């Protein structure tokens, strides 16, 4: 089936990581532009495989290029609603190609081709061929397929606009429904290949954390292939509507996670938050010093006020772990009226990158918009606190009520939090640890999971060395 392709194509290559030293070229990602788009259309020219722009042989080793992956499919039983779910399979199937690495989804894709593949004669047209064959094999409903790989910058820019329009259309449809309007939610285990205990729960209000699949997409996918990775979840008894806890969700997640996750709150990052694989578009993180929540998206390249970038933060909550105080989420979920509703929604958000904030201007309550600091206003927890006080953010009222504000003392002369001296009330947790191993006596090791650390007093001093 893949005889024309000079590298092996098989699921065993999924999970292959191509580090910078072994890479021939990189595509899209944080330093360029790119997108992938699946479209169900009429009149597909079956077998139309093209590279529009430079091929690998015309590229310079070590350089970064834009990339568009445009796939058009046709089939008597193919519905438009299947576009999102089939598009999401591009990630997994691309990674079957030895020497081709594909990360993320939609306009967040990030790909690399290895030097080894290039030396073996691999070209982008082979990638188009592999993708078309794998998609047809995976989805027998596809009768005709065309795959165009775009590397010309102007073409990719135009394609990006088309792709974003299509994503917006899909997302806005799902916004017309609410969790209460339906009897079934959907689950997805597509990412269990690399996060074996992770189960996504997709509801009208909670688009999947990869941002690529909404409730309608799941409905179409589950109808097409009831035994596939996307399946129905009967909501069952509502245990807590505010937190978003449902009997049916707990039962299904427990079963599909092999008993690892027994309870899930769909709309809170405390106690039993939704797990994450690693494909999320953003992370919400608890800031215990101010009892507020920060948001950071994948595109943000700077440091969060916690002194770590998105990538480090992402490592805290990926891999299917349930980590209180952290969740991976989609940008679309931030547009839902149920966005972290049990925690206070935007009333509790105390930091987010400027670009993300501006993109959500329509969805952040007007009276809060100017009260939420960005990287331009605050680079440390101390800066955030000042900004919140100056702008009368509602979280300060909350802190005052619990008398914790008076307990937080911040030392002057730091902009990264490394020089903090904080004294807190005994009742306030100062850290959440997903896992901590402590040596015990007599060869016993104590492992604390999802530990909350409480302290009467915490003093953090800058190391003079
Ligand atoms: S992130 Fe979730 S919804 Fe998206 S493909 Fe992975 S498991 Fe499915």
Q: What percentage of the residues does DSSP assign to strands (E)?
A: 15-25%
- What is the overall silhouette? globular
Helix content: 10-25%
Full CATH superfamily name of the largest domain: Bifunctional carbon monoxide dehydrogenase/acetyl-coa synthase(codh/acs), Chain M, domain 5
- Strand order in the sheet with the most strands: 4-1-7-6
- Any idea how many domains? 2
Kindly report the average pLDDT value. Answer: 88
List the uncertain runs: 404-429
Largest sheet: 4 strands, mixed
Task: Calculate Rg over CA atoms.
Answer: 24 Å
Q: Cofactors and ligands present?
A: iron/sulfur cluster
Please give the number of β-strands: 21
The CATH architecture of the largest domain can be given as 3-Layer(aba) Sandwich
Q: What structural class should be given to the helix and strand makeup? A: alpha+beta
In DSSP terms (H or I, runs of 4 or more residues), the helix count works out at 11
Under CATH, the topology of the largest domain is which? Answer: Bifunctional carbon monoxide dehydrogenase/acetyl-coa synthase(codh/acs), Chain M, domain 5
The CATH C-level class name of the largest domain: Alpha Beta
| End-to-end CA span | 61 Å
Molecular structure report:
The chain has 465 residues and is an alpha+beta fold. The protein folds into two domains: 163 residues, Bifunctional carbon monoxide dehydrogenase/acetyl-coa synthase(codh/acs), Chain M, domain 3 (2-Layer Sandwich); 251 residues, Bifunctional carbon monoxide dehydrogenase/acetyl-coa synthase(codh/acs), Chain M, domain 5. It contains eleven helices and 21 strands. It has a four-stranded mixed sheet. A hairpin with a 4-residue loop joins strand 12 and strand 13. Helix 1 packs across helix 3 and helix 1 crosses helix 5. The longest helix has 22 residues. It is globular. The termini are far apart. The relative contact order is 0.09. About 6% of the residues have low confidence.
């Amino acid at each position: 089936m893949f005889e024309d392709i000079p590298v092996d194509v098989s699921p065993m290559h999924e999970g292959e990581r191509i580090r910078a030293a072994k890479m021939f070229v990189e595509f899209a990602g944080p330093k360029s532009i790119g997108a992938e788009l699946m479209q169900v259309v009429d009149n597909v020219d079956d077998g139309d495989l093209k590279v529009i722009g430079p091929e690998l042989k015309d590229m310079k080793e070590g350089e970064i290029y834009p990339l568009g992956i445009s796939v058009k499919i046709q089939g008597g039983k193919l519905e438009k609603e299947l576009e999102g779910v089939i598009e999401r399979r591009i990630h997994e199937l691309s990674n079957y190609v030895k020497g081709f690495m594909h990360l993320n989804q939609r306009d967040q894709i990030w790909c690399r081709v290895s030097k080894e593949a290039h030396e073996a004669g691999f070209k982008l047209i082979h990638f188009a061929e592999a993708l078309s064959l794998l998609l047809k094999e995976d989805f027998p409903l596809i009768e005709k397929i065309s795959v165009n790989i775009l590397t010309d910058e102007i073409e990719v820019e135009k394609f990006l606009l088309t792709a974003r329009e299509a994503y917006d259309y899909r997302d806005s449809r799902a916004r017309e429904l609410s969790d209460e309007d339906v009897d079934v939610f959907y689950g997805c285990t597509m990412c269990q290949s690399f996060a074996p205990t992770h189960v996504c729960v997709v509801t009208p209000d909670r688009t999947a954390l990869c941002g690529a699949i909404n409730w309608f997409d799941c409905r179409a996918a589950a109808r097409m292939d009831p035994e596939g990775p996307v399946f129905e979840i009967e909501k069952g008894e509502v245990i807590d509507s505010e937190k978003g806890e449902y009997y049916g969700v707990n039962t299904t997640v427990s079963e599909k996670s092999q008993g690892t996750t027994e309870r899930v709150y769909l709309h809170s990052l405390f106690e039993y938050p939704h797990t994450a694989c690693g494909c999320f578009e953003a992370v919400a993180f608890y800031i215990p010093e101010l009892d507020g929540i920060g948001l950071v998206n994948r595109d943000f390249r700077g440091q969060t006020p916690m002194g770590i970038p998105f990538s480090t933060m992402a490592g805290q909550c990926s891999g299917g772990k349930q980590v209180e105080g952290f969740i991976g989420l989609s940008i679309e979920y931030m547009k839902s009226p149920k966005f972290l509703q049990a925690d206070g929604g935007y009333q509790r958000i105390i930091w987010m990158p400027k670009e993300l904030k501006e993109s959500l201007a329509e969805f952040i309550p007007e009276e809060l918009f100017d009260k939420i600091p960005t990287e331009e206003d605050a680079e440390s927890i101390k800066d955030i606190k000042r900004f919140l006080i100056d702008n009368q953010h509602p979280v300060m009222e909350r802190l005052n009520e619990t008398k914790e504000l008076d307990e937080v003392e911040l030392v002057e002369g730091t902009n990264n939090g490394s020089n903090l001296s904080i004294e807190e009330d005994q009742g306030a947790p100062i850290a959440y640890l997903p896992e901590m191993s402590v040596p015990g006596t007599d060869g016993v090791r104590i492992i604390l999971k999802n530990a909350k650390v409480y302290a009467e007093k915490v003093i953090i001093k800058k190391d003079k060395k």
